[in-house]
Specification:
The complex is a heterodimer of chains A (115) and B (111).
Chain A (H helix, E strand, L loop, with lengths): L3 E4 L2 E4 L5 E7 L5 E8 L3 E10 L2 E4 L6 E7 L2 E6 L8 E8 L9 E3 L3 E5 L1
Chain B lengths: L3 E2 L5 E4 L4 E7 L6 E7 L6 E7 L2 E5 L2 E6 L4 E6 L8 E8 L7 E2 L3 E6 L1
Parallel strand pairs in B: 2-11
Antiparallel strand pairs in B: 1-3, 3-8, 4-5, 4-9, 6-7, 7-8, 9-10, 9-11
Classes of the chains: A mainly beta (115), B mainly beta (111).
């Protein structure tokens, strides 16, 4: 499970602050994702990237931005944090094989609290 | 209505019981079906992966897909306390990135 790492693991911030969550992977995968998890809502996709130059919005991208610094690094930023962004954030990478479908590998998560 | 519905539980069973976890869905285009297990304070990990309808078995775990009923199940035989976790179903229309997750069912296996 150390193949996908996230920092920080826990973060408390105040409304209006800019924060960055970082994700690194050693799996050699091209595809990377950011999700948030809320009680009763499951995992929802924020942004995804198929390679360094290909970044796309997911289901709930408003209020977030991302940066793909390298194949192995994908960062999520909250430009001006608000309390309803309090959630558990997961980074994932995927191992897509032709005809074989998608297998996503998740990091350990970052627990974010916005006061 | 959510695309994927999953009872949140918690589901509490004694050790050794057979556990049945289920999801229903509304999108008939879903073809790939997955079960993820998530331990407390950990990320989800893929447990089972099936394509289209039918059964797939892996040790104590069996995944079933009934596309006609839009219903998928995960069975755990001889459940162990170490199986205590939240189980998330996920599905996609094709072999692409876009997974739709259920909200998860919390399982507690009592020693």
């Amino acid at each position: 499970d150390a193949d996908v790492t996230q920092t920080p693991r826990n973060r408390i911030t105040k409304t209006g602050k800019r924060i960055m969550l970082e994700c690194s992977q050693t799996k050699g995968h091209d595809r990377m994702y950011w999700y948030r998890q809320d009680p009763g809502l499951g995992l929802r996709l924020i942004y995804y990237s198929f390679d360094v130059k290909d970044i796309n919005k997911g289901e709930i991208s408003d209020g977030y931005s991302v940066s793909r610094q390298a194949q192995a690094k994908f960062s999520l930023s909250l430009e001006s944090a608000i309390p309803n962004q309090t959630a558990l954030y997961f980074c994932a990478t995927s191992d897509w094989t032709t005809g074989g479908g998608e297998t996503q590998y998740f990091g350990p998560g970052t627990r974010l609290l916005v006061l | 209505q959510k695309e994927v519905e999953q009872d949140p539980g918690p589901l509490s069973v004694p050790e050794g019981a057979i556990v049945s976890l289920n999801c229903t869905y509304s999108n008939s285009a879903f073809q790939y079906f997955m079960w993820y297990r998530q331990y407390s304070r950990k990320g989800p990990e893929l447990l089972m992966y099936t394509y289209s309808s039918g059964n797939k078995e892996d040790g104590r775990f069996t995944a079933q897909v009934d596309k006609s009923s839009k219903y998928i199940s995960l069975f755990i035989r001889d459940s162990q306390p170490s199986d205590s976790a939240t189980y998330l179903c996920a599905m996609s229309e094709d072999s692409s990135y876009k997974l739709i997750f259920g909200s998860g069912t919390r399982l507690l296996v009592r020693p």
